[in-house]
Amino acid sequence: MIDYTDVKNQRNLRLHTKPSVQEGDYRTPAQKDKDRIVYTSAFRRLAEVTQVASPGDVHVFHNRLTHSLQVAQVGRSLAEKLRQDTAACDSVGGIDPDTVEAACLAHDLGHPPFGHTAEELLNQLIGSVAGGFEGNAQSFRIITKLAFKSTLHAGLDLTAATLAGVLKYPWLKGQNKDKPNKWGAYGSELKDFQFARKVSPRRKLARSPEATLMDWSDDVTYSVHDLEDFFRAGRIPVHLLARASENLERQRFFDDVYRRRAGDKKFPKRGVLEEAFANILAIFWRIYEPYSGTREHRSRLRYFTSQLIHRYVNGIEIDSKKKTIEIDPEYEKEVMILKELTWTYVIEAPSQSLQREGQRTIIRRLFEIYSDAAGSEKKWSIFPPFYREELGQATSNATRKRIVTDLIAGMTEPQVIEAYRQAIGFWSAQSFEDLVR
């Protein structure tokens, strides 16, 4: 059995520095973690990184920064709700709202420009020999190595509890056969990963309590707010799906879901998700026409989304006997089908599919150019100073590939487009080096 007393003593430890109290600094260790994350350039860049639609779209969609802020708000609400039962919290080793909030703020730092399109391609380009690429593992790499706080150590030197809270997938590449394409850290950050796992449940592949809350907050937030965004933009026909008399649109939607999910044996049966969707539609009843932007319509939409968030915040509790955090399985199904709405009506729309092809072209070409330059010191002038320093210490081709991947994954979408324009000889008045500082 896990020794929770020992865990509590280790939660606030940092890998690189000893605990210290600065005169006049009232912050707890987790509160310091939050501040360290928020003040990084890696956090600021999320304002120009895709959630689903491009941040440059004419509509005001959520981007990765607003999404992260909202995940943090929901995560804190969940933690504060569960903290009301002190004994139950103690049974899972304790839950700190500030730690949950810090983990939520950091969870998407590794999200590359163009989102999952670039994530999949970068994983192919860097190759398994070099350790692959995964957005969650990249987030962990940023907070433990790439983000800058001091010349005395790498990364932000966060507490063990916050590091564990970021580990949505608390295993290394290849350690979970059920999720071969998902992992939480690269081998290059093994020491930090092992440090974080010391305060996690000893059950194999189990998340920390804060990581569970972070992940549920992430699912709830983007499923609800993507729905809101794309109903406003006229992309998801909520008004048709919500009508009791409109069976054709719902049938078309579910046909598409199960076409896409064909072969996924773990995906729920159609009747199960249809019932879950019906439960959501019971709240939809006030939305019976396309979004118009009137005061009344805005009020109804906001009421609907707030009701969903409230519903899912209250759908989680601690099982003291099992020493686990349990999510209402019915609510999990509802969130699952909400995500499918975005896939059917937005992600797989023809315009988005064509755009993704262009995005792949940009990422692939930049990777080729930087990889070629990384192999010759004479060409290092195309890299910003930090990456030149990293290349100077690289001892293998795999390490150089990782540095190239760090550079591309750490750009905003305007930056990566500007770098591509320069790479194909398109003149720009602003240097790329200025963009990535």
Describe the structure.
It is a single chain. The chain is mostly helical and 437 residues long. The protein has 3 domains: 4-15 and 26-210, Hypothetical protein af1432 (Orthogonal Bundle); 212-350, no CATH class; 353-435, no CATH class. It is built from 21 helices and 2 strands. It has helices at 4-10, 29-38, 41-44, 64-82, 86-91, 97-106, 116-126, 135-146, 160-166, 190-197, 209-232, 238-241, 247-260, 270-284, 295-313, 329-347, 350-374, 385-393, 397-409, 413-423, 432-435; strands spanning 316-319, 324-327. The chain has a two-stranded antiparallel sheet with strand order 1-2. Strand 1 (316-319) and strand 2 (324-327) form a beta hairpin. Helix 2 packs parallel to helix 6, helix 6 packs across helix 11 and helix 14 packs across helix 16 (329-347). The longest helix is centred in the C-terminal third of the chain and has 25 residues, at 350-374. Residues 1-5 have low confidence and may be disordered.
